[in-house]
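Please decode residue identities from the backbone states below.
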């Protein structure tokens, strides 16, 4: 919040704000709608504020009562136990692909199954990984560590020091929270380093500077009488932590501003293929998507890199600093991949025109880039279908060396590369095609399958199609449909419509084994709507649903739903929607704006109260996506759709299923709690279930995930099949 700006805008815009919220897609204002849109008035009109106290006794008592009700109606359904068993068999199967990571001269993997629900960190050679019987060597047994320490440890990854990557910083979450404890681990001896680096629980940003120094952004407590976290709960100060020092003793390297938005300052180091640090940078987010990039030299910030605010530094390749732009810059369009020589970046001052690596077309988007010894691997989408190309750098600048031949109509992703080798792992999959892991060679362009997921369901009965729906403003919205091959076009097919529509995140057609087993095999259809707000067609596709343009994503989703109905595949009686996190904004708004269009609504780990989301950690970090409800102009457009305020006692909603997690420290559980409570208070039939572990990512263990998916599909079957 910028108090001066707020004060200046308030008096001029308040009359407009009040009139703007009088009507909207849901019709007239609701009886509980605040008299004004000031934060104080919004809070005063909220009778369920007490549910925002995550561990409050009254709130937890409310949660437990709703959990018992949900379990009596979902877990007691005769389909629940078969669904749970089938989901668990898939999630814990021994023939899953162990997803690899190059580490030093070996391949590592983190593995969870029935015997090891917390997981094993293990390693093998590349030849061993490619063999039929991989000789795994255990590095760390997380189940044993959890038992020994009496903690509910959840693995959140390892950050290892190049080039040999034997010293690693392991991130451990207690119960699945985003906040982690960090400990130094030596893989050569298989134990934590006595007296080594250790960070207490927090939302840290860190990287190795050298074997005795970390660059750390975290909660340093009060610094100069001021908190060291922003209102989002993320750090804005970077310090150099030398081995043996406490956080208080670490020397400050960079300082942003306590008023900064986004996810906190992040230090990172770009290295050459030998693992030598060549460029130290700090990313300073101004809001969710705008940022400054600062060059660190001689232990302090030397200059700001002359990049546009909407840009991202991606890699160092051939002594070129590679970056993407999310807005036009230097004559190039948004989405372009560009580079500057590293010596120019280090020198600062007037920057030359960047060199173009590739400019995506209007129906393309760059998903990721990764460095190999022979070139820069670029994973991009074309018409929401995955592609892979390799670019090299020479006397004439950048050029495409080759495009890899991959299966058509697939989702493609780079799993891992190493800048010191030509081989890299690539994943290929489709809605009915199980995931295959390829080992590609950047030097030759060849690729070969090294692992394939067995079929988890019978896909022969279904077919995949891609269609487009016309949204309210005429924009064509692509979507993928997987349906029974012989589906009668009489509106009778039970159909799940999935959407997300935010944060420039794309959703290509991926293999979802539990969905196929628990839904498609029962005769259902599944749809992925590639609505605006995502990244399917580059930055503009995302920006067309930002802030005051958010309604576009809701209109797009409704357009896809109506197109499915118009084609005769399904009907409102047989159509359900599912979304989580930002997708919970989408689904909660969709049911309030179009309650007659759906008969099932799964809203998972959602944002719902968009008039108070900034007050609920870590909501303020997303102001760049949604706007700031404390500013009257922003409050006006947010209030037009915020589902919590837009519920009406005069409307009969379908029975809604809301689910979240007590330990979710990314999207506050109060969003789901309050929405359920208000529906209940209005006399609506609502199901609510809150898990007690797993956090936002639901990565605690496969058994909990199996129960979660079983409840989802029992509910969807009750609403759309029965």
């Amino acid at each position: 919040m910028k108090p001066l700006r707020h004060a200046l805008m308030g008096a001029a815009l308040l009359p407009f704000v009040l009139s703007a919220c009088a009507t909207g897609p849901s019709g007239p204002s609701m009886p509980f709608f605040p008299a004004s849109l000031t934060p104080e008035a919004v809070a005063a009109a909220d009778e369920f504020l007490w549910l925002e106290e995550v561990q409050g006794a009254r709130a937890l008592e409310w949660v437990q009562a709703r959990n018992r009700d949900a379990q009596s109606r979902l877990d007691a359904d005769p389909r629940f136990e078969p669904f749970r068993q089938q989901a668990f068999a898939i999630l814990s199967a021994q023939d899953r692909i162990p997803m690899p990571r190059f580490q030093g001269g070996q391949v590592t993997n983190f593995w969870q199954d029935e015997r090891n629900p917390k997981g094993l960190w293990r390693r093998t050679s590349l030849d061993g990984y490619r063999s039929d019987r991989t000789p795994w060597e255990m590095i760390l047994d997380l189940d044993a560590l959890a038992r020994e320490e009496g903690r509910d440890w959840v693995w959140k990854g390892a950050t290892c020091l190049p080039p040999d990557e034997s010293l690693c910083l392991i991130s451990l979450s207690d119960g699945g929270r985003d906040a982690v404890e960090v400990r130094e681990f030596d893989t050569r001896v298989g134990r934590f380093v006595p007296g080594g680096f250790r960070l207490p629980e927090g939302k840290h940003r860190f990287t190795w500077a050298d074997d005795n120094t970390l660059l750390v952004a975290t909660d340093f407590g009060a610094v100069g009488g001021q908190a060291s976290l922003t209102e989002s709960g993320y750090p804005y100060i970077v310090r150099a932590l030398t081995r043996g020092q406490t956080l208080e003793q670490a020397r400050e390297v960079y300082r942003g501003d306590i008023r900064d938005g986004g996810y906190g300052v992040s230090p990172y180091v770009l290295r050459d293929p030998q693992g030598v640090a060549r460029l130290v940078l700090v990313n300073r987010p101004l809001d969710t998507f705008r940022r400054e990039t600062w060059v660190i030299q001689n232990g302090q910030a030397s200059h700001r890199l002359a990049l546009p605010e909407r840009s991202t530094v991606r890699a160092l390749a051939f002594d070129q600093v590679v970056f993407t732009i999310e807005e036009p810059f230097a004559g190039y369009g948004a989405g372009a991949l560009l580079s500057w020589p590293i010596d120019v970046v280090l020198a600062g001052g007037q920057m030359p025109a960047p060199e173009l690596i590739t400019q995506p077309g209007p129906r393309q988007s760059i998903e990721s880039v990764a460095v190999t010894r022979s070139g820069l691997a670029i994973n991009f989408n074309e018409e929401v279908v995955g592609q892979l190309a390799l670019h090299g750098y020479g006397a004439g600048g950048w050029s495409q060396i080759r495009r890899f031949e991959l299966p058509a109509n697939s989702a493609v992703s780079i799993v891992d590369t190493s800048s010191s080798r030509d081989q890299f792992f690539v994943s290929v999959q489709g809605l009915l095609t199980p995931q295959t892991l390829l080992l590609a060679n950047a030097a030759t362009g060849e690729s070969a399958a090294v692992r394939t997921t067995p079929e988890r369901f019978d896909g022969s009965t279904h077919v995949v199609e891609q269609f487009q729906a016309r949204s309210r403003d005429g924009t064509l919205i692509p979507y993928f449909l997987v349906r029974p091959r012989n589906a009668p076009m009489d509106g009778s097919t039970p159909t799940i419509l999935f959407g997300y529509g935010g944060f420039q995140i794309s959703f290509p057609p991926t293999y979802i084994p539990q969905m196929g087993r628990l839904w498609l095999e029962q005769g259902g259809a599944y749809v992925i709507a590639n609505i605006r707000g995502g990244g399917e067609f580059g930055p503009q596709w995302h920006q067309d649903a930002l802030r005051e343009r958010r309604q576009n994503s809701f209109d797009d989703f409704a357009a896809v739903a109506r197109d499915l109905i118009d084609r005769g595949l399904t009907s409102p009686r047989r159509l359900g929607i599912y979304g989580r996190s930002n997708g919970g904004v989408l689904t909660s708004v969709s049911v309030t704006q179009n309650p007659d269009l759906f008969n099932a609504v799964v809203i998972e780990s959602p944002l719902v109260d968009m008039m108070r989301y900034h007050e609920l950690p870590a909501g303020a970090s997303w102001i760049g996506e949604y706007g700031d409800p404390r500013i009257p102009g922003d409050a006006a457009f947010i209030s037009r759709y915020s589902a919590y305020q837009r519920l009406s006692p005069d409307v009969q909603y379908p029975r809604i299923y809301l689910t979240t997690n007590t330990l979710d420290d990314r999207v506050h559980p109060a969003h789901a709690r309050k929405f359920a409570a208000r529906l209940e208070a209005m006399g609506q039939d609502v199901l609510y279930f809150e898990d007690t572990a797993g956090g936002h990512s639901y990565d605690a263990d496969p058994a909990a995930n199996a129960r979660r998916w079983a409840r989802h599909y029992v509910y969807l079957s009750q609403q759309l099949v029965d």
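Observation: The first helix runs from residue 3 to 20.
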